[in-house]
Description:
Elements: H1 15-26, H2 31-41, H3 49-59
Helix pairs in contact: 1-2, 1-3
Amino acid sequence: xxxxxxxxxxxxxxxxxxxxxxxxxxxxxxxxxxxxxxxxxxxxxxxxxxxxxxxxxxxxx
Length: 61
């Protein structure tokens, strides 16, 4: 069974992709791979340095 999730952010460049990346990290992806996977689906995302660091820290927990 496939799982689907819909996230919404008015601009969608940072907050929603960060949330999706955190979910993917929780499911086993590395932070950098989670961001790459999301960019394959939506090229317009732009995680800032703070968001990327937060995901890296989250992935180490």
